Amino acid sequence: MSPSEAESHKLQGNIYFGQQLYDEAIREYSTAIIKNPNNPVYYTNRAICFLRTHQFDKVIADCERATELNVEWVKGYYLMGQALAEIDSRVERAITTLRKAYDLSIQQRVTYSEEIANAYRQAKKKKWEIADKKRRSEQSDLHSYLTTLMEEERKRRVEGLEGWERERVEYELVRAYLSFFTETVEEVNIEANFRWEQNERTSQIQTLFNTANDESAKRREVPDYYCGKISFEIMMDPVVTPSGITYDRTEIRQHLNKIGQFDPLSRKPLREEDLVANLSLKEAIDDFLDQ
Question: Which segments carry the TPR repeats (predicted)?
């Protein structure tokens, strides 16, 4: 182990990274890891390069190692969550990982909590989009299947009627013309009735699917009271001020740190320690996001 040599390669990697020479940076960070494999910084530095070059599995591997070395390494969970979110089949784990990153960032008061919160929201949004795409595909398949079944049923019923008519003509030679004429008219009317019945069923099915889509869309409309008063995005960690106004924790913290120690709406003095978690609203928002 050679910590000083490892640090030298890390610094050179940082220079390459600043120049957007990611392959060269990866090489330097890899050398740093060889020299000192127990420093989580080297793994997450390399993971950022892998993220920029869309090598998501390598990002995940490096971040898993970094968080093994330090179970409270915020950046490790943050980068891992971002990489997981790029893989459709792993979005659920991305959400869990980013939530952990966010909770740790609040505890440790890191400066990029808002970026983590945004990544979390994007992962949630992607989960909705994947579920919605799957639902629409399944509905389309079901709609086609039901419509095909109805058409097959209509053909079967009409064909059965035609067979019955032919058999009747054979046994009623004397009344062949009249029977043919009369039954043909009835047959046409019955077939037209079958067609009307099929069209009515098809219309009913389409109405049913349209209604389901409308209801689903309504459920995905975010209520105003779930959104923060600063960014108007859905809140991740709602807190209440002494004035009774609810904000997202990261947004109000950013306001207090950058603008001033006052409530942005009531304009009354406000400190971070005055904020109280709105647990009931948080639970409601989490339930909404899980729908």
Answer: 6-39
- The strand ranges marked E within 141-244 are 238-240
pLDDT, tens digit (0-9, with 9 covering 90-100), for 142-188: 667 666 766 676 666 556 555 555 444 444 433 443 344 444 444 44
Cβ pair 26, 46 in contact under 8 A:
yes
Same domain, 172 and 76: no
Phi then psi for residue 264, to 5 deg, are -65, -25
Count of domains observed in the chain: 3
Phi, psi at residue 40, to the nearest 5°? -65, -25
How far apart, in whole angstroms, are the C-alpha atoms of residue 54 and residue 43? 16
Q: Which domain holds residue 211?
A: 136-220
Residue 240 β-bridge partners:
246, 276
Query: What confidence tens digit (pLDDT) does each residue in 262-284 have?
Result: 998 888 999 999 999 999 999 99
